[in-house]
Specification:
Blueprint (H helix, E strand, L loop, with lengths): L3 E12 L2 E12 L3 E6 L5 H8 L7 E6 L2 E2 L4 H6 L1 E4 L11 H11 L4 H15 L14 H12 L6 E5 L7 H16 L3 E6 L10 E6 L2 E6 L1 H7 L5 H16 L1
Parallel strand pairs: 3-8, 3-9, 6-7, 7-8
Antiparallel strand pairs: 1-2, 1-4, 4-5, 9-10
């Protein structure tokens, strides 16, 4: 994991007098599972939108997959996958129609789409659900399909924004197995979450508090540094520290 695929330097986003993302700097390496953690409202989604080329930074620098997020946003979009908390699927389309739609958006040709669709449905055990409307699938199945669609075109990086929100712990664990499989294929996984236990599944994690990155390291090193039993304990210590600073 020596190749840098995401790099930021003092990346900042303001809305009027409010600073949502405050001078964040970090690097992410190829094939890494990088956790971007923080409470709701910490600035995670705003930062991710800048990295995906969906929002212009106010100041600072950033590159994703070798492309400048200011000047080459379209190139960035061509080299990434994206899945939001809402699963990024069209509920009134069938399973195979969703796959074809997004594969076409990602620039794949008909032959590639047809061949890979059959393979994907078999891998997921969805062959009998090929013609099922997505809205009729259980939540966990929608989640698996949405993730699989987001990496269908084998992007260099996939951005997952709170992907396991609202699902049970068992389904969350199954979803993380899909993440491991993607990372094993060399796809870098950048995942935001407010579930601190999921930090344990990441190679490295950053923890955002009020728009700033207050800690960044492996889960093991962070727990050692903060003399904590869990990543939840690490986060609570950082949150208390931020509250005292604000006072």
């Amino acid at each position: 994991m020596n190749e840098i695929v995401i790099e930021t330097e003092n990346l900042t986003k303001t809305f009027g007098n409010f600073t949502a993302v405050n001078h964040i700097s970090f690097k992410v390496f190829k094939g890494e599972i990088f956790g971007f953690l923080g409470a709701n409202g910490a600035g995670k989604t705003t930062a991710m939108r800048m990295l995906c080329g969906l929002s212009k930074p106010t100041s600072g620098k950033g590159t994703v997959a070798g492309f400048d997020i200011y000047r080459q946003a379209e190139n960035v979009k061509e080299n990434i996958g994206y899945m939001s908390q809402k699963f990024s699927l069209y509920e009134d389309l069938k399973v195979w129609e969703n796959i074809r739609l997004f594969a076409g958006i990602y620039g794949m040709n008909d032959r590639q789409i047809s061949e890979k669709t059959n393979i994907l449905l078999k891998q997921l055990g969805f062959e009998s659900e090929r013609n099922t409307l997505v809205k009729e699938l259980p939540l966990g199945w929608k989640q698996k399909l949405a993730f699989s669609v987001s990496i269908f075109h084998e992007p260099k990086i996939v951005f997952l924004d709170e992907p396991t929100g609202g699902v049970d712990p068992s389904t969350r664990r199954q979803f993380w197995e899909l993440i491991y499989q993607a990372a094993d294929r060399g796809i870098t996984v950048f995942v935001t979450t407010h579930y601190m236990d999921e930090a344990e599944y990441c190679n490295r994690v950053s923890i955002m508090v009020d728009g700033r990155i207050e800690a960044l390291d492996t889960p093991k090193n962070l727990k050692y540094q903060f003399k904590a039993e869990s990543m939840e304990d690490v986060f609570q210590q950082l949150a208390r520290k931020a509250t005292r600073k604000a006072e």
